[in-house]
Amino acid sequence: MAIRNIRIEGDAVLRKNCREVTEMTPKIAELIEDMIETMYEANGVGLAAPQVGVLRNIVVIDVSEEEPDPIVLINPEIIESSGEQTGDEGCLSLPGKVGVVTRPDYVKVRARNEHMEEIELEGTELLARAICHECDHLKGILYADKAEGPLKEVKKESEES
Ligand code: ZN
Known about the structure:
Elements: H1 26-41, E1 46-48, E2 58-61, E3 71-82, E4 85-89, E5 97-103, E6 106-112, E7 118-124, H2 125-137, E8 148-153
Antiparallel strand pairs: 1-2, 2-3, 3-6, 4-5, 5-8, 6-7
């Protein structure tokens, strides 16, 4: 496993659409392992493949506060959403900043896991926010596009994704 370099806003790769993953290969498996390691090393709650420069439909998320419990979503598609939450959001590709974004408070996502098995995952609160944020990355969308008002500068590095 290896830590990969996180791309920062302004890098064109963050603005492109990702391609579907059709089969698990050693290269994709290695990418997923590296993404998980890179997310933890950066204290993020999520990371999308374009953030490490790879235009594939893969995200990793971990909103757990104690033991690491990474979720891998390949080709994720949000199939249900409801409610609303408004709060601060950050991104490892926009370090040191947060912005206020309104997201659904509940989402259901259909995806494949790291074994390419079809799964459905429901999330509320922070998990719902992280799923929406990471799925946006796969379409070249950054949270700053959706933030209300200007982004704020912060010093803490937790809860970025
Ligand atoms: Zn992000």
